[in-house]
Write the structure tokens for this entry.
Amino acid sequence: MNTHLAALQPYPFEKLSELKTGITPPAGVNHIALSIGEPKHESPQLVIDALRNSLSLLETYPSTRGTAELRETIASWLQRRFQLKQLDAETQVLPVTGTREALFSAVMALFDSHRSDNQVAFPNPFYQIYEGATLLAGAKPLLIPCTQESSFKADISTITPQQWDQTQILFICTPGNPTGAVLSEAELIEIIRLADKHDFLIFSDECYSEIYFDESSPPPGLLQACAKMGRTGYERCLAFNSLSKRSNIPGMRSGLVAGDASLIKQFLLYRTYHGCAMPPHHQYASIAAWNDEQHVLMNRNLYRDKFALAMNTLDSKLQIYQPDAAFYLWAKTPVADTEFARNLFQHSHITVLPGSFLSRKMGDTNPGSNYVRIALVASLEECRQAFDRINAFLDTL
């Protein structure tokens, strides 16, 4: 047995289930789940049609590298979206079965346990896959606090040069989960320069990049920052993205990794043995999704409406912040986050996720404590109901 398994904490939703144990919500009140970041908007018809039209491809084994057409489609989308003048579909792009699988397996493939620099750094709070991959690779986690004082971005100023020297991989998440904070192009360039100076890799989780509010200012990406620096080789850098949030197809498990060709080559070797090639009909449908922007714009508009409703409706007793992007509200609670989540479920039959379940204690503080993550994935009408119920609950505190 892998002895590192013992170091893993229960997944946040396992903790949430335990937190709600023994609670009976009000009878006759429909449950509204705002805890899981699972898109609930309709999947685009063009993807559904592409799936139906490609079922004959089930007769063939998929290629781990993906088809040339899919890689070229992904490369073209990345070039358009992130203003890249150069990206080689043959050597710098790899289709993956969603960002979750790829973020995890990239650490397995690229972390060298024989080196003395044995740390993997990531924001705190964080997407739990970063920690799981770190621990199962035998690496030591290096937590970077994300607080209100740092605009909910990873405060890299808290990390010493000696700590950077001990780091092999840095995870960044922009737009951030759970806070929705976006790293600027200048901040990304600063991180790239740190990686050059201290010899570590950057894995940029960008799966929320297409959920934003200002059409004139989409969130920048890691490869875009590289291009700004004139680095078309994207040395040390890998960007991860997905169709799950962008196109409302989380069940299809389709994403990408792109960047440094030398890292892609080693990651492809690992994946060839790992056995995680994307099914052929999913590849065909992914081409349709990456080639269309109209459904993505419609998706953003739906989230804009829900955020506008939240900002105009939720009581000031719940301190909420308009995020830069993504579909989460990171809300400061007037009582402990676990107490808030438990009592809200009991009073209003609404599920939200305590922030402390997404973070780890650093010294005497936990940057996720007294926050809850509210995922605005339900319909506009369900969100309206939820906000009214939350306000009524706040009146009881």
Q: What stands out?
A: The chain has 14 helices and twelve strands. The chain has a mean pLDDT of 97.
